[in-house]
Known about the structure:
By secondary structure, this protein is α/β, with parallel strands linked by helices. Helix content is about 35%, strand content about 20%. The chain is elongated.
Amino acid sequence: MPIFLVNTNVPKAAVPAALLSEATEELAKAMGKNGRFFVVPIVPDQLMTFGRKTAPCAYCSLHSIGAISEEQNLQYSTLFCGLLNKHLGISPLIYINFCEMVVQNLALDNTMFKVFIEAYHAKK
Length: 124
């Protein structure tokens, strides 16, 4: 259940819907996972500076169960920075925080995510 969160000072009107779908599709491909449970929230219109500059910038985080490592994070960084530059004109003012989630600390709807994963694997 990866979550790619983008906080940006880019105005909402300048954020194309294509960014959401392309980010989900490309991230699923890069992670080798089904995009069905990916969450990609984009939070525009943030009051933010980057190194005292108010130019278009972003603070992002990628949260995932597994698939977080130094080698993979470099690949994701290249992917995300490319997407944010392409769709929002943000470059090079992008921070990305990579966070390994613990399955026991997550819930999906009314079920602990661990139970959901176990049931999913039992069906295979």
